[in-house]
Amino acid sequence: RGGVFVITDQYGLSSNVAFYTPGQIRTQLWQARRTCGENYRFWDKFSDFRDMDAILVSKTLPRAESRLEKLRQHFANIGEIEAISIKKDGVEVRKFHLIRCRIFDGQQPQFR
Prior knowledge:
Distance between the termini: 30 Å
Shape: globular
Order of helices and strands: EHEHEHEE
Largest sheet: 5 strands, mixed
Structural class: alpha/beta
Number of helices: 3
Mean pLDDT: 86
Radius of gyration: 14 Å
Low-confidence stretches: none
Helix content: 25-40%
């Protein structure tokens, strides 16, 4: 946990990361809440993450790219998009796209 939190751009992905990560790292939703994501209004407290680094996790490159502008509004530095492949018996079964984000401003992001 050491000063890093996880953000994702899909409610289901946030839930999976939070549940399956050892220690159940705190994971935040980085998109407009919809029907499924509405519960995040009960526990979103972005001010708790002020000055922390984050990693955005996305399932697709276009979705990751679409988050860059909002990330730049709230972090001092944004890294390049990195792809990580998950393989089973040498065959890619899933690919995730990660963006390293440094020094969060602690402000609640506003999505439309």
